[in-house]
Amino acid sequence: MGIHTGDSIVIAPSQTLTNEEYFRLRECALKVVRHLGVVGECNIQYAVDPKSQEFRIIEVNARLSRSSALASKATGYPLAYVAAKLALGHDLVSLRNSVTRVTTACFEPSLDYVVAKVPRWDLRKFATVDPAVGSCMKSVGEV
Fold this sequence. Notes:
143 residues, alpha+beta, D-amino Acid Aminotransferase, Chain A, domain 1, two-stranded antiparallel sheet, two-stranded antiparallel ribbon, 6 strands
C-alpha cells in the first residue's frame, strides 16, 4: 500500500475480484460518495485481502485524476464532460450517454475487453533519484 498509483500497473476491469467482492466494493463506493455528498466524478482506491475478503479504502479522489483519464479512455465514457454538466446543474437522467447514444448518462459502462496502464520511467533524466518505488510518484508517463 506504499506505492504511488502513478507508479502502479493498472488492469481494467479487475481480473482477480470475484463478483461478490466487486459488488461489495461498488456498494461501499456508493455509500462513501453519498456520505460525502459528491456530485460529479469520484474514484476510490482499495486494498483487498483475498484470503480474508477484508478491504480498506486507501484513497478517495472526489475530482478528476489520472485514474479518471484512464477510466474515460478505457470505457469511452466522457467523465470530464459529464462532471462539468453535473456542476452546471444537469442531472444524469437528462444527459445522453455519448457511447450508446440511446441510454442516459446513468448507464454504467461495462468492458468486454481489457485495458492496461504501465508506468514509464526515465531514470537517466533523474540520476540522483532513488529508483525504488514508494509513496512519491517517480514515473514520467505511462503507456
